[in-house]
Amino acid sequence: TGDLCLHGDQGVEILGYNTLNALDIRLESNQLVKVNEYSKISGLDLELISNGSNSLSKSVIGQGNKIDVTNLLVESFDSASIASYAEINASESVKLISFGQGSASIAEKTSIVAQNYFQSAKLSSSLDQYVSIKVNSINISGTTCSIFSGTILEATEKFGSCFLLSYPNGLFVASIVTGK
């Protein structure tokens, strides 16, 4: 139950159906960084960082994962994503960041409970249908934003370009709840 740091030049993957408990967990590569499906991960900080500079740079929380941490960071150049049916509980923050030419996205029926949620992409930020995010503060930004049907965003404070009323590139069909 100490710290775990895995670095691989050609990618780092935690195979599916595993249980992992450590204080701080850092997975880092220039290419794919992924926690495969239906794993259970708990600890203080979980970081998936793909710091490459091309379309192979991807960070992914796989389908059906159960994550229970203090802070979660999913960051990459190309795409940062959380797959469907994931359950994420973070006592402090969840950050999903694509800093290059890709997207930051959450797939359908994923739930996130945290104090703060931050999602940013140079290009596209999206929340698929039936995503549920319950936080105190939410910040979602991107050149284009898509928030699909049945999505519930419960937050006391909303920030970011995806919440601007004058935003020309957004598709909004979510139930956005302010306050608690």
Give a brief rundown of this model.
The chain is mainly β and 180 residues long. Helix content is 0%, strand content 57%.
Overview of the molecule:
The chain is an all-beta fold and 180 residues long. It has no helices and 22 strands. The strands form two sheets. Strands 1, 3, 4, 6, 7, 9, 11, 13, 14, 16, 17, 19, 20 and 22 form a 14-stranded parallel sheet that branches. Strands 2-5-8-10-12-15-18-21 form an eight-stranded parallel sheet, with no helix packed on it. The chain is globular and about 45 Å long. The model has no long low-confidence stretch (mean pLDDT 90).
Annotation keywords:
14-stranded parallel sheet, 180 residues, 22 strands, mainly beta
